[in-house]
Write the structure tokens for this entry.
Amino acid sequence: MTDLASPGMIARMNPQTHDSNAADPLQDVVTAAEAARLTGRGRATIQRTLQAGEFPNATKGDEGWQIPLQDLVDAGFDLDRTQTEPESTIKPPRMPNDVDALKTQLRIARDKLTIESAARRNAEQLAEERAQHIKDLRGLVDVVLSRSTHRAG
């Protein structure tokens, strides 16, 4: 059997339950952070497993959780993992073919279309009003110019 924990890890284990002469290293305990490093899992994964009660012999003390290595093995954790999983709990975005997501996207697109159509109608109406105002002003300018031409002549 290979060493399950490094010498540094053994030194950090709970001295009350660690027996350096013990034949079975699975009797040792580790903190939640050490369990995460040892299993290559994120600390959040270890915390969720603790909260789910999957480490029945784990105890919480002044230094945090003390988890027996045997509990880690019994819960299905591989003690020889070297890669770590990301700590992120962000879920990936839903796939575009998800019906609910597509319905939501369609509703948003329709709402945007309604708003843009209303804005276009308002802009067209304003343009017509301004064109009429310009036409009226030109008419007034023509009247004023024709009166001044009649007076001068």
